[in-house]
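Sequence in, structure out.
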Amino acid sequence: MDKRIKTPISKKDAASLKVGDYVFLTGTIYTARDAAHKRMEESLNKGEALPVSISGNIIYYMGPSPAREGRSIGSAGPTTASRMDRYTPRLLDLGLGAMIGKGKRSQEVIDAIVRNGSVYFAAVGGAGALLSKRILSSQVVAYEDLGTEAVRKLEVKDFPVVVVIDSEGNNLYETAVEAYKR
């Protein structure tokens, strides 16, 4: 089922999503990869605030390529989400609404998704050039020294994702395998 969601994502919207739903996101999402997550963890450990509010927001695990002339961003495909798993439960407990990436998540992340009524989306790997066409603007908002791993604020319109882990812990990577076996 296709759904359209305005960001930040509300708990009600997250709860309405089911594994396999096609979702089109419109609004603000943030990017952060390994180095940015590590720095956010260090800030939290020091009692410092995060560089952006994560309450209800969505983090896209992506490091863009340079923008081509006339474009706001270069290729913008997802990176492997499991690389952020050690940091994710804490961010979910602090209010992170959803994540976008590719690949499986640890049981600790799935438990935190359920505990917090969040959701994990997948974006199509290898389709970064197409995904970038759904990004209207890109602005570095934290950790500029990290280059492509800096935290960016993206404005997106009809950004296509698939629900991979819903707020009840249903996991498309598991259910799809079982359906295929039948």
